[in-house]
Amino acid sequence: MMLIPAYVGRKSNIQVLISQHSDGEYIAQVIKRLGFGIIRGSTTRGGIRALKALVDKTKEGSSVAITPDGPRGPRFVIQAGTIYLGKKTQLSIIPVVTGLSNYWELPSWDRFRIPKPFSRALMMYGDPINIPANLAEEDMEYYRLKLEQIMKEMAERADNLVRQKDTANNHY
Predict the structure, then answer these.
(1) Long-range contacts of 146-150 (CB under 8 A, 24+ apart)
(2) CA 172, CA 124: separation in Å to the nearest integer?
(3) Alpha helices for the chain (secondary structure H)
(4) Measured between alpha carbons, how far is 47 from 98 in angstroms, rounded to an integer?
(5) Coil, strand or helix: which one is 110?
């Protein structure tokens, strides 16, 4: 679901966390050309360094974007680094999902979607989630599960809304 948000946020100088895996290089090149800053790292490679870079960028006033289910998934399973970043920076986590009316789905773990020509897209932004600075390590799971549930519900709602719009248009 990354294509539409990448287009909408282009030239915004948002710092984007991208995996150090080989497939991440393709994404990094495209994202860089759209005007985003790039921070490389993931839960499996360079994660600590990447988190530090993200924190540093927020202190400089940058916004950051991450795909919270990590470079290898599982799909829609939020990684703990998202919550840690919210705790450390004290910036709100704003869930963002995209619904598409018509798309091709790649046979990858994340079922990457490519919008078909003339399909409708809907970007949905959730309410900000604030992670307490003094949150104990054992309480981070509560926020991780909360964000995971919110994003799953939002993704389903966005898909349903964009499809309802198409159905309504077909009746006229």
Answers:
(1) 147/68, 147/78, 147/82, 147/83, 147/93, 147/95, 148/76, 148/77, 148/78, 150/95, 150/126
(2) 26
(3) 3-8, 22-33, 47-59, 80-89, 140-170
(4) 26
(5) coil
Domain annotation covers residue 18: yes
Structure tokens at 5: 């948000």
Flag whether 172 is in a domain.
Answer: no
Q: Is 77 exposed, middle or buried (0-12, 13-18, 19+ CB in 10 A)?
A: middle
Residue 156 structural domain:
3-167
Instruction: Please report, for the chain, how many H helices and E strands are present, in that order.
Output: 5, 7
Beta-strand relationship, 64-65 and 121-125: unpaired
Question: pLDDT per residue over 63-119, tens digit each?
Answer: 999 887 766 677 778 888 899 999 999 999 999 999 999 999 988 877 888 899 999
Q: Tens of pLDDT along 6-62?
A: 888 888 879 999 888 777 888 889 889 999 999 998 767 777 888 899 999 999 999
Q: Residue 113, Cβ neighbours under 10 Å: how many?
A: 21
Check if the beta carbon of residue 70 is closer than 8 Å to that of residue 141: no
Total count of domains within the chain: 1
Model's pTM, two decimal places?
A: 0.84
